[in-house]
Amino acid sequence: MIDHADDLASVQAATERLLHAVGALDNAAVTQSSRLPGWTRGHVLTHLARNADALVNVFKGRPMYASAEARDADIEAGATRPLDEQLADVRESAERLRAAAAVPADWSRTVELRNGVTDRAERVPFRRWIEVELHHVDLGIGYELEDLPADFTEREIGFLAARFSGHADVPATTLSSADGRTWTTGGGADGGPVTVEGAPADLLGWLAGRRDGGALTVKGGDLPKLPPL
Question: Looking at the record's lineage, which domain of life comes first (predicted)?
Fold first, then answer.
């Protein structure tokens, strides 16, 4: 059962963690490379702010972004701003999203995201939680996959396993975490079944494209090559 109110509270807590951590940086650190190829920390922070505004659009029934080109241009335009402007933008855009989500609405309705993707409105808060948590890790400022809340990690593994389920390039795969939980994914490609075992953080890192899977144990074949998210 999805509890969008609980997820919204988790988004707020994750945002406060990120703002506190980023607040300890300086202007020079914002211009340095993040862990995402081609993006500085300023790109990551600007993306987080614009993503919040884009989800306001989703809640209001508007297109998430005017266009892919406009999305990219907005991120580039904001990436070089000093730390205080970045912090204010992330904080204020998060508040706009919180206010939009507080408006009484039918949370079971279908909303449209990027590239024609649709989902139930009640799942949007978790999608935002993913953005905040993973991009906090992407900043490379001491917050690692192992630091993510355990309930978030479990749900995100399940979310990504469902995303790759039946994918034409991924063989039938069972994911097994060190604490005994399992998920199934893939199944659209020849080969398998493959079992991939490891710590929850390593499984999540591989599924989310943040780790190469070198820490995982694979049985029944090679580690599947996952398509980009």
Answer: Bacteria
Inter-residue contact 45 to 86 (CB < 8 Å):
yes
pLDDT in tens, 52-88: 999 999 999 999 999 999 999 999 999 999 999 999 9
Using N-to-C axis directions, what is the helix angle for 150-164 and 200-207, rounded to 10°? 40
Q: Which amino acid is at 213?
A: G
CA distance linking residue 132 with residue 67, whole number of Å: 22
pTM above 0.85, yes or no: yes
Helices (H), the chain: 4-22, 27-31, 41-59, 68-78, 83-101, 124-138, 150-164, 200-207
d(CA 213, CA 226): 11
Would you say 36 and 134 are in contact if contact means Cβ atoms under 8 Å apart? no
Return phi, psi of residue 224, to 5°. -60, 145
Whether the bond into 227 is cis, omega within 30 of 0: no
